[in-house]
Structure formats: structure tokens, C-alpha cells
Amino acid sequence: MSDGLNFIYVGSYMIGDEDNEVLVRYRIDKSPAQGPTYWGLFSNNTAAHIPMGEVAAFTEAAKAGSKFVIRVTDPADNQILEYEFSLNGLTRALKLLSCARGGSEVQASARDRAVRSLPFHPFPTLSRG
Questions:
Q1: pTM of the model
Q2: Measured between alpha carbons, how far is residue 50 from residues 47, 113, 128 in Å?
Q3: 125 is a domain residue
Q4: N or C: less crowded end of the chain, CB within 10 Å?
């Protein structure tokens, strides 16, 4: 995990644009909103990932933050999904992963697998547009 936390947004089915991407704006705590930037959709069209060029900065900001707000706009139909969730405990949780300590995925311990199985995704606390 030397490059950081590759945040994956998991939500409703999204169509995306011609490049299979959605527009994302996010804010950590009271910092200025980031984006909008295009995030690529996974093949099931229910999850999108932060571009790799933004991963390191996002990780550092998220580790220092306490609240994360994300707004996802599907360019195909202008559907807007907005979520807010806590970042409390993120730094501690990341330290438990072998990839954050320089280990490989193959060497992942049972504790690592248990941490990875925890639901670390947005909990709907704001409007679902």
C-alpha cells in the first residue's frame, strides 16, 4: 500500500459516460471540496474507484480527517448520490494490513483478511438523490 488507499465507492447501479466513468466530488472535514473528477466504474457498474494519480493525496487527507462526504453524479442520467461517513479509526485500521507494512497480498494474515472484510464504504446518512 505504498501508493495509498485506493478508495472505492460502492453504491447504486450507475450507467456512466462513454468512457464508463462517473463524476465525483468529495470533501474531508471542512477542507475545500475536491473535484469533480472522473472515476472509473467497475464492470458491475455499482462501484467506482479513485484515479491512481489522486490516491496518495487522498490517503493522507483521509488519515488526518474525521468525516468524509462524497457526491457521485452519473453523467448518463444526472442521478446524484450523496453519502457521508466517519473516518475515525482509519489510520489504525490501515496499519493492520500487511500491504501497509510492506507485506504482499500472498502473505496476508488472517487478521488482514478479517480487516479487509469489514464494510468500509459510505453509509447513507445524507439524501440519496
A1: 0.70
A2: 10, 22, 20
A3: no
A4: C
